[in-house]
Amino acid sequence: MSWIEVRAIFEPAPLDWSPMVEAFRDHGIENTLEESNALSGAIVDVEATGAEVAALKSLLEQLGATEVIVRPLEEVNWEEAWKQFFKPQRIGNRFVVRPTWEEFAAEPDDLVIVLDPGQAFGTGDHGTTRMCLALLEEYVKPGQTVIDLGCGSGILSIAAKMLGASRVLGLDIEPVSVEVSKENAARNNVECEFETGDVLDFRPDLGWDIVVSNIISATLIYLSPDAYASVKEGGYWIVSGIIQQNWADVQRAAEKQGFKLVERREEIDWVSGVFQR
Fold first, then answer.
1. What angle do CA 87, 135, 225 make, to 5 degrees?
2. Cα separation of 16 and 22, whole Å?
3. Model-level pTM?
4. Looking at the predicted structure, is the pLDDT value of residue 80 above 70?
5. What band does 118 get if pLDDT is binned at 50, 70 and 90?
6. pLDDT tens track for 156-169
């Protein structure tokens, strides 16, 4: 599998990187590496990649990038680059996320998620994922059912299963994410279901206790009717991946369907929330 790297250089560096991170995510690049004055990410080189990269380059230039470098990238180099940034970390009260190449001395009550993210988004290193993990720890009860829309590396699905969910289904548009999620679930000795599919084509399946969606704001707004139709009465929709200036639009869309906001959390420039049906 070959990859294309996009590296945006900013002179001077912006005070707020979140619009640039959102731009990468909007164009299919979930994982980004931030340097002192640059942001970079990689996308699989397939038929549609050229148009996606061109659109991203144009948007980054509109956001103030002084130079945008696009170049082929060997997959092994991207994976090795990630290893220097991905270290074990404690999230919430019980979760510890560690990569396969790092050791960690766990406490008796710890829930340790061992990940090899590969090219899939979701290591717990990003604030949006950390907030989702902490919220799942608070809201998932043993025996409940959870659907993870945009499962990435499978981290949230695995977490829900570790918390005692009886059934967990993860959905992602990227086949590589589904494969990575399956491998990570097996690595952690949990049974989750993973399917390849576009969350925009997701159709309501009434009766889920919790729907969790760590994806971009525009997709959350589009999904709000189906999310409401999928959650049972009293169930929750946990949302994340929202930059602060987009939160009001997401909240408005959720409440228009009949959801009630029960909790909102912020980390730096990112917002997560919990809506109840």
1. 120
2. 11
3. 0.74
4. no
5. low
6. 999 999 999 999 99
Side-chain half-sphere exposure of 243, counting CA atoms within 13 A = 13
Beta sheet of 95-99, edge-to-edge order: 89-91, 95-99, 111-115
- DSSP character string of the chain: --EEEEEEE-SSPPS--HHHHHHHHHTT---EEE-SSEEEEEEE--TTHHHHHHHHHHHHHHTT-SEEEEEEE-HHHHHHHHHTT---EEETTTEEEEETT------TT-EEEEE--TTSS--S-SHHHHHHHHHHHHH--TT-EEEEES-TTSHHHHHHHHTT-SEEEEEES-HHHHHHHHHHHHHTT---EEEE--GGG----S-EEEEEEES-HHHHHHHHHHHHHHEEEEEEEEEEEEEHHHHHHHHHHHHHHT-EEEEEEEETTEEEEEEE-
* Structural domains of the chain, ranges and CATH numbers in brackets: 3-82 (3.30.70.890), 86-276 (3.40.50.150)
- Mean pLDDT over residues 202-207, rounded? 70
pLDDT confidence of residue 120: 45
pLDDT at res. 251: 97
